[in-house]
Amino acid sequence: MTLAFRCVQGSVAYRTSKAMAERSEAICSKGDTFFGKRLTAQDGSVWLSNESNQLFLPMVHPEKKKEMFEEVYWECTFQGTVQARSSPEVSDTSETWVKTGQSISALPVAEHPGWLIEADSKLFYPMNHPKSGDVLFKSKTSPNSSDLEEGQGVLKDPTDDPSCEQVAAAISLCIPLVGCVTFCVSAANNKEGSNKRKWGNIACGVATASAILGVMLRFTVFSTSSYYQY
Prior knowledge:
Elements: E1 3-7, E2 11-15, E3 23-29, E4 33-40, E5 46-50, E6 56-58, E7 69-71, E8 73-76, E9 81-85, E10 93-99, E11 103-108, E12 115-118, E13 124-126, E14 137-140, H1 145-150, E15 154-156, H2 163-171, H3 176-189, H4 195-227
Antiparallel strand pairs: 1-4, 1-7, 2-3, 4-5, 5-6, 8-11, 8-14, 9-10, 10-15, 11-12, 12-13
Region (Disordered): 138-159
Transmembrane segments: 167-187, 199-221
Keywords: Membrane, Transmembrane, Transmembrane helix
C-alpha cells in the first residue's frame, strides 16, 4: 500500500537500491514529503521507495537506530461525511467517502491549494467545506486503530445500500416481474458501478432466467400431456 511520509531527519541521502552503500546524489531534507511504500530488504532492514523518483531511503538511522521518517495522516473533523473527488474540482464527485474521526494517508496538493490527495487511491479531498469554509481535516502522524481495521477509513457512499435490490433478486426467482421493475428503477436512479445498480442488474438476470425456465417447464408439461392423449 502506498502511504504518505515526511522526513524528520536533517537530511537523508537517497539510495539507488536497498543498500546503504549505493548512495545517490539526491537528498531528502527535513520536512520533505512524498508518497512511497515500505519495503524489507533481505537483511531485514526497512526501506522506503519514493513513488516519484523510484529511489530508496533507509527508514532507520544506521547508527542512532531511530526512524528518520513519519507517516502523514489527516483526520476527518467534519461532523458527517466528506466525499472524495476524482480531481481537485468540487463538482467531480466520486463514490468514496470518509466519516468523522477517520483518517486518510494524504498530502496537500501544491498546485491546488486547499486540497488533499490520498496516497493510495489518488483521490482528492477538500480541506475546507466549499460553502461554509469549515475545516474538514487536521494533520496527524498516526492513524486511529479503527482506521487500520476499516482500511484507512475510506468508505463507500452511505446511500449506496443494495439491501432492497438483493431482496428483490431473491423474490425474482418466483416472481420475475419484480426483477424487471427493480432493474428499471435502479438504472434510472443510480450511477453505473454502484452497488444498487449492480444488484439491480442481478435481479434482472435472475428474473430473465426464471422466466425462461418457467416457459421451458410449461412447454415440457404441455408436450408430455399431449403425447399421452388419445
